[in-house]
Design brief:
Length: 335
């Protein structure tokens, strides 16, 4: 085992989120433009390269690996990668292997994921209305995702729903989504829309529904108990006393969560972003490809990057304009 990764602000880096593809079978309006140009295949890390890099991180103390994208389950042969990563669960070096998915392919893969040691999965779902679902995802079908959620639960995976809070879109579904999760024994987390990527006509401020509004609406209907637990990330949780449900709020724009940040993100091209809201990154692919048989320089590149992890991000909607906007899409860094 190598020396653990600790950043300049004494935060241990124990959580790696890895985007394994920039492609997706949906085109969610807040995430992608309708006509996306995707990366040529040679730009992507191969599954073997992804394995090598992730394994180096695990060797340096990363305990939790979240696979994301794009849509991770549309990457060809992705199950072989999950299978490869499961050896780190077996050895005890990794505590958790998990993924964030739009759910469209869970019908095919839920059982295989469970067999690879995946215990929990985050499924993104913003509406329970089939027409609205088709509108917000542009290409998605709600029934397919519902079958995916069924398959995941049947395979014994714990499902958490992530819903992006969108003004004028799912405000009327706050309680239907909450009740749906209660009936299915799923946690629910609301995500505030973030200024990622240039989406053409979509206006960020038009989509922005602050989570403090959702919280206030919950408080009118339920008794809320603040939970102190933290995953080291931007989510804050409450329990609804009447149903016992845990509801999460991811509020990167209205809550400063950076002080407890324990994570870094790797893109499918091997760029390591030390902060979701800053442009600084390290090119791990170059280190990897320049040294096919020697991990020492790759580890050095990782440590170098962690030494540059900034204190925090600069997103801000407070002045009625989008400050700190990032030009890259969420599907690039992985949400
Ligand atoms: N395709 C998978 C999915 O949808 O779950 C994984 C990747 S997706 C980029 C990860 C998460 O980011 C999803 O929950 C999605 O809703 C969220 N997301 C995408 N664009 C966003 C944005 N501009 N603001 C906030 N959340 C966003
Ligand atoms: Fe695809 Fe996920 Fe982005 Fe939707 S949010 S377009 S499902 S990557």
């Amino acid at each position: 085992m190598q020396t653990p990764l600790i950043d300049p602000f004494a935060r241990p880096i124990t959580y790696l989120r890895v985007s394994v593809t920039d492609r997706c079978d949906f085109r969610c309006v807040y995430c992608m433009a309708e006509n996306m140009t995707f990366l040529p295949k040679k730009e992507l890390l191969t599954l073997e390269e992804l394995d090598r890099l992730c394994s180096l991180f695990v060797g340096m103390g990363v305990k939790k690996l979240r696979i994301t994208g794009g849509e991770p389950l549309v990457r060809k042969n992705i199950m072989s990668f999950f299978q490869a990563m499961s050896r780190h669960l077996d050895s005890g070096d990794l505590d958790e292997l998990t993924l964030t998915t739009n759910g469209s392919q869970l019908g095919r893969f839920a059982a295989d994921l469970a067999a690879c040691g995946v215990r929990r999965v985050n499924v993104s779902l913003d509406t329970l209305d089939a027409d609205k679902f088709a509108r917000v995802t542009r290409w998605g079908r709600l029934d397919q995702v519902m079958r995916g959620i069924d398959a995941a639960q049947q395979a014994g995976l714990r499902v958490k729903l992530n819903a992006v809070a969108l003004k004028g879109f799912n405000e009327d579904e706050q309680f239907t989504l909450t009740e749906f999760c209660a009936t299915r024994d799923m946690d629910l987390t609301w995500i505030e829309v973030m200024p990622m990527g240039d989406l053409g006509n979509e206006d960020r401020l038009d989509q922005y529904w602050p989570l403090k509004d959702l919280r206030a609406r919950y408080a009118e209907r339920y008794d809320l108990v603040d939970l102190t637990e933290s995953s080291g990330g931007p989510a804050r949780y409450v329990r609804l006393t009447q149903t016992g449900q845990k509801i999460g709020f991811i509020t990167p724009l209205t809550h400063n969560f950076c002080e407890s940040c324990n994570r870094v993100r790797m893109t499918c091209t091997g760029e390591l972003y030390m902060c979701l809201g800053q442009e600084d990154r390290a090119d791990l692919r170059a280190a990897l490809r320049d040294h096919p048989n020697d991990d020492t320089p790759v580890r050095a590149a990782i440590r170098d990057a962690i030494d540059r992890k900034p204190k925090g991000h600069d997103f801000d909607y407070s002045r009625q304009q989008v400050a700190g906007q990032m030009t890259r899409h969420m599907s690039h860094t992985g949400g």
